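Re-run with default settings, no changes from the original entry. Doing this only to confirm the output is reproducible before filing.
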Amino acid sequence: MEAYRTEKDFLKSLRRFNALSSSKYEWHTGKSEKEHTCEFGHAIPPEHLYFKKPLDMEGEQKFRVCPACMETLVFLTVDCDHHSKNIIEQLYLEKHPPRTKTIKSSH
């Protein structure tokens, strides 16, 4: 399933996906030191990119997902349904209000 045309599109949706969680439990990327198994059963070979989400305050327990599964998870949660996309966009904007540009005066 190819859900996103560019990595930039995927990363934008991933930021919105993270708006569904507390900042302490957001998804981050990692590079595997050893072989892991994705929560959906796929192998994550050593030295490969994967996505991780802490499951405890110390970050000792992690939920690991391979890139293909993460793309599918984000697409189905954020971009598949127009109504959900609007709600998630509002949550994202509440957590990350748009920055206003300050104009320097030349006085």
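The longest strand covers residues 49-54. Residues 82-95 form the longest helix (14 residues).
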